[in-house]
Please model this.
Amino acid sequence: MGSGPFVDQPRGFDLLSLPGLRRLARWKYARLLFQLPLLALALFVIVDGLTGRQVAPRNVATTAVWLHYRGLVVIALAMFGNAFCAACPLMLTRGLSRRLQRLLPRPLAWPRALRSKWLVIGLLILFFLAYELLDLWASPWLTAWLAIGYFGAALAVDTLFPAGTFCRYVCPLGNFNFALAAASPTQVTAVDPDVCRACVHKPCLHGRESHASAPAEGRAAFVPLAEVVNANGSGYFPGCETGLFVPTITSNMDCTFCFNCVRACPYDNVALTVRAPGRELSRQPWARRGRLAVLALGVLLTYWGVMNALAMITPFYQAAAWLSDLLGTRDEAVLLGAFYLAVTLVGVATTLGASWLADRAGGARSSAMAAFRRWGYVVVALGFSFWAAHYVFHFLTGALSIVPVFQHFFEYRGLPADPNWRLAQMVPTRWLFPIQAVIAAIYSSVALFVAARIARRDFGRRRWVLALWPMLLYVLLFTALQLVILAQPMEMRGTVLGPLP
Ligand code: SF4
Ligand code: SF4
Model:
């Protein structure tokens, strides 16, 4: 095997080289440190959701989950990376699932047919439909049960199947984060690929055991302490539970930022590298990791993001009334299903069409599907733009309400607290649309950058501009549509046929 990198990884600044950060990432309890606050928040969500006042804007469950959590997820993805998977409290069920697993002869194998993102895609659409039909955003009680169900599902899946199965193949939230983390400015990489070449056991992937005196437990390859150069030498260190091998990582897909790899690597050879937000998407990142299903997940999320915002504006209610008359039904599930289907079909058709046109314009005779595999990443960047602008809007309109909502939690239970309900919005209303427009402009530029890089890569100096124009048009039209939707006043949802009075 030759020298040089295994794959094309970014070679920017290593964030772990900042004072104290590598030491923190290597610390056995680093993840726990970040999980505990979110666990505490989850407990507040469950307690207030089940036993608190069932008024959405006054309950920790509905405000923390539907306002703060979602806003902070996209802000973290844009500024840093998949911080919320890193701090995911669901993974604290691991200790229990490992114990329960010992009662089984051995973990079951996750069915081969489900080793893709198709199940996640199905669960995501079910979640989006349930969100609208059950008004999850308005029900503290249902939100609490959603959290409980989530903990139960993580425990059950990771008990019956190998660790990491839930994150990689089941969790809709995690996969939402994985897909959008394609536009994040950081990625796990190998510091020196040659050190990885000489590394026999690949502990970043498989884990390692190193003990001073105790015998090996057989949980992972034994690496003698004399070989271990980093400070966390002794003990058992699990490897990557979602099956990523550090020197071959080209994407944030499936990376939970758990930093098991940092702790397991005996040679301190893992970096958290800063990169341009469009870098990953311009390099066909998912061609080797999940292929079509992963790209479909990214593109579908884009259009379901459009639908999620559409369902909050007045023209949508007018369209729903028209459709209701046309179909002769007021059944919300039917109407909403029809809208989701229509938006999905339009999204897929326009993406396939623009991709096919771009290939033809560039002189390639490839099928629409092959063109989609080339250009679909441009749409994923637009998806990030839409979700980020939409969720940041909600976050900015209500972020400070977390203070009175928590005060109310204690007041409701008879403790001395005086909620200040005037605290809510973080910025003046007139700033909200400009902020969303700036986000749209930034990530539309990222999408254009991705399109230009793909065109240069695949169509050469003579034809790349020709290949680019259909995608250029696509990005501009999508951005215009995004701005039109975001410029509408957002109604508090009621039913598909109209907001609550
Ligand atoms: S354990 Fe470290 S040195 Fe070995 S392959 Fe993984 S990152 Fe490279
Ligand atoms: S162990 Fe795997 S999932 Fe965790 S940070 Fe490393 S590459 Fe990402």
